[in-house]
Amino acid sequence: MKRTLLTCITALMAFPLFAQNGYDGAGFYRIQNQGEAGRYVSIENDKVSEESKKISFAGGKSVSANIEALKTVKSKDSNPGTVIYVSGSTSGLTLEAQGMNTDELLAKFGYSGYKLKMSGQGELNTSYEGYQIDLIDFGYDYPVKKDAFCAVATLNFIRTNTINKYALWIFKKIDNVNEFFGVNPNEGITDGKKYYTTLFTSFAYQLSEGMKAYYIGRHFYDTNHVEEPIAELIEITGGKIPAATPVIIECSSSNVADNKVTLLNEDLTPISGNPLKGRVFCFIPGQYEDQNMKNALEFNKKTMCVLGMKDITRGDRGETTGAKLVLVTESNNDYNISSSLTNGYIPANKAYLPLNNISSSEADAIAKKGIRLLLPADYDVATSISKVVSEDKVVKEGIYTLTGVKVKDTNSTENLPSGIYIINGKKQVIR
User: Fold this and answer.
1) How many other C-beta atoms are found inside a 10 Å radius of the C-beta of residue 412?
2) Do residues 31 and 17 make contact, with C-beta atoms less than 8 angstroms apart?
3) For residues 23, 24, 27 and 30, what is the CA-based torsion angle, rounded to 10 degrees?
4) Rounded-to-integer distance, Cα 390 and Cα 215, Å
5) Does 13 score more than 80 pLDDT?
């Protein structure tokens, strides 16, 4: 029983099993393999396959175990799974990423004394019954441009298969120069000037110039009170985002390198009252992988919204006021959310809005129009308009300002100054 558990732990240790050249004290790192592919470790799951638990490393046999939860990836600049916080000494390391901690993970199996080690050559290993077990890039015979999986292997396996370099790793400190983490607004949610996406990370960060972050504040979903479902966007002043905070990010560029953030190792005050939720993992096993490894949240259009954008048309003349941010439940001719999902699941490190305790009429309104996202000033205008409309439903004649002041006794717009008015209970733009 003890041997089986250790085997499982060895696999789990491989899950954040890293240590190597370039480590110079606690901080955020990326961990790159020294093999030809030069791939980076990325944590994709917090589960270990049942198959890997069955592998025995006893006696130093030539054996390896694939770790599906750990991928080695080529693309890393915008991947939160490649951002590893490392602390401790080379003879006893603790690694944290995606909400995982190697010490806590090992303690669950009764091995609280185990630590990860790093050799001068860059071997990342632990030991079992006196035998060294290393973390390797298991894609040593896989195309260098493709992603692969990590594995744990005995030295006999490494030497027999002549994959020495693929058992060596380099610590690369994230310094916003040679290594950085940036936001990638790649879902196509843009008004042509700004680019938007959602983000949910296990680390705190500081936005750079030209970027903003928002969360959701007040909201109306009932179209009996407002013309359409609306919610207020509240900007996070100062641009410091606490860890595990789901937000909507605004960028001035679609280029990741222009959207760098500074990683923060500090406990920021959590944001209260934010209804957005975040998802760390989206692991969907392939045909030949352990199906018990699945760790993904399926998108349900009846109970969830994701970020999108659509053209808003208002007024009796059908004027288009431009592209506006919305939270939507399904794709239609106005907006496409398929790029905001991963095969029908909430993507890793993205945010969504759960629709809790809403009426059937509210659900219908959201399904038809989405939830329009407004900045505080826009939100106040929208709700004041709704108030005027609600109070003056019986008024058939007359033109009113957005604040409810009557400016004409008839509905004629002749000689009316340019602006936005309430005419016959509806908002209308006069130019």
Assistant:
1) 11
2) no
3) -30
4) 28
5) no
Q: Which two tokens stand for residue 372?
A: 């329009």
Secondary structure of residue 430 in the 3-state scheme: strand
Residue spans of alpha helices (H) in 303-400? 360-369, 376-391
Instruction: Give me the half-sphere count of Cα atoms (radius 13 Å) on the Cβ side of residue 174.
Output: 27
Q: Would you state the structure tokens that stand for residue 133, as one six-digit string?
A: 């077990």
- Give this prediction's pTM: 0.82
DSSP secondary structure, 202-250, as one string:
SSEEEE-TT-EEEEEEEEE--TTTSSS-EEEEEE-GGGEE-TT--EEEE
Token match 């393999």: residue? 33
pLDDT digits over 277-286, tens only? 999 999 999 8
- ∠ CA 381-277-273, nearest 5°, is 50
* H/E stretch holding 373: strand 371-374
- As a three-state string, the secondary structure of 41-100 is EEECCCCCCHHHHCCCCHHHCCCEEEEEEEEEECCCCCCHHHCEEEEEECCEEEEEECCE
> What percent of the chain is predicted at pLDDT more than 90?
47
Q: Phi, psi at residue 261, to the nearest 5°? A: -120, 155
- Rounded CA-CA distance 99/429 in Å is 49
398 phi and psi, to 5 degrees?
A: 115, 150
Structural contact between residues 199 and 187, judged by C-beta atoms closer than 8 angstroms: no
Q: How far apart are the C-alpha atoms of 365 and 201, rounded to whole Å?
A: 31
Q: With 0-12 CB in 10 A as exposed, 13-18 as middle and 19+ as buried, what is 141?
A: exposed
Residues contacting 314, CB < 8 A, separation 6+: 321, 427, 429
